[in-house]
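Protein modeling request. Please complete all fields; requests missing the sequence field cannot be processed.
Requester role: graduate student
Desired output: 3D structure, C-alpha cell encoding
Chains: 1
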Amino acid sequence: MLNKYLFSILFVLSVFCTQAQTTINGSFVHGGITRTYSFYVPASYTPGTAVPMVIGLHGTSSDGASFAQYRDFRPIADTANFIMVHPDGSTMIGIRFWNYGNVFGSTVDDVGFLEALIDTISASYTINPQRIYAAGMSNGSFMSYCLACESDRFAAIGGVTGSMSVSMYNSCNPVRPTPTIHVHGTDDPTNPYAGTSTMVGIDQMSRFWVDQNSCDTTPAVINLPDINTTDGATATRYLYTGGTNGNTVELFKVTGGEHTWPGWPMPSSNDITCMDFDACIELWRFFCQYEIPAATSIKKYPDVELNVWPNPSEGLVNFQTAEHTIYEVAVFDLQGREVERVTKEDIRSIDLGHLKEGMYIAKISGQGFYAVKKLNISR
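Delivered output (379 residues):
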C-alpha cells in the first residue's frame, strides 16, 4: 500500500514537472528521416484550455534554436498564452533548409512533416486547431507561403525577407483565403525586393494574396515613426482591408533595410536592420486577429483520386472517384456559411446553378474518405 502511495506521489510530481517545463525537445521519423524540433510552453498554459500555436521557420543554414534566439517570440507567448514551436529543416551536404518545392533537388515532404508536428504536439497539449500560424525568415518565409498554398491547417501566415518562387506562384491554389503579413527590405541582397528570374517580387506577391483574400486593391499607407534615426532604414506599412471574413493583407516595406529581421539585429553582422518596429510583435498582432472558420476547418485525405468538372462551372458540377462512392456533398461560401448540402447513396453530379457567381468550398464525403475542393461558379 505504501508503495502504491509513493508511486502516485511520484506520478503527480512527474506530471507537474512536465507542465512546469518551458522548453521541450523532441523528434520523430517522417518520410524515413528523423526530424527534430523544440517548443516553448508558457507558464500561463493550462492543460485542457485550448491555446494558439505559432511555428517559426528558420532560414537556410540556420536551425530552430537560432530562430528562437534571434527572432524571439517567447516573451510574447508568455503574455499572450500561445505555444511557440521551433522545428528544424532537413539537411543536404550539411546545410539545413526547408523544401518548399524541389529546393536543392530535394524530395523531402516538409508540408507533411509540419502537419505531423502539429498533430504530435496536439496529442499532448491542448492546441486550438483553428488558431495555428506560421512565421518564416528567408527560406522559412518561402516555406510559410508554401503552407498557405498547400495546407489547410493555418489561419494566417507571416514572412520576413522571403517570397514565393515563380513555380509556387504559378501553381498556388489555396483551399481558402489566408491572411498574410510580409516584411521586406528594399536593399535585401539575398532575396531582392524586385524579385529574380526564380523569385516573385514582393509587390507582385502581396497583390497575389490581396486577390486571394478579395481585399480592396487600394491600401491604407502608414509611415512608421522613424524612432531610430541612426539605423539606416525607415518603414512604411501597407494595409489592405475588406477581404473575405474580414481578412486583411499587410506589407511592411523597409526602405534601406537588408536581409534582416526588424528589431533583432544579428551579432557581428553589418547588415542594416530597421529598429523602428519589432517584427515579432507585428506578426503576432496580425496573427491574433484570425482563426479558421469552423465550416472550412477540414483535414483532407490526399490519396483519394477525385475529379470535379467543369470547374469553373455555370451550375452543373460532376464528381468522380476511382474507388469510392460519394454519399454527401456540402458546399460553403467563403464566409464559412453552408449554402447547399446533397445527401444520397451515389452522387455523380449536383446543380449549383442557383448560387451566385464566385468561389465556394465543397466538402465531398464517401465511404472511408472525405476531400475538399474549391468550386468556381462563373457564367
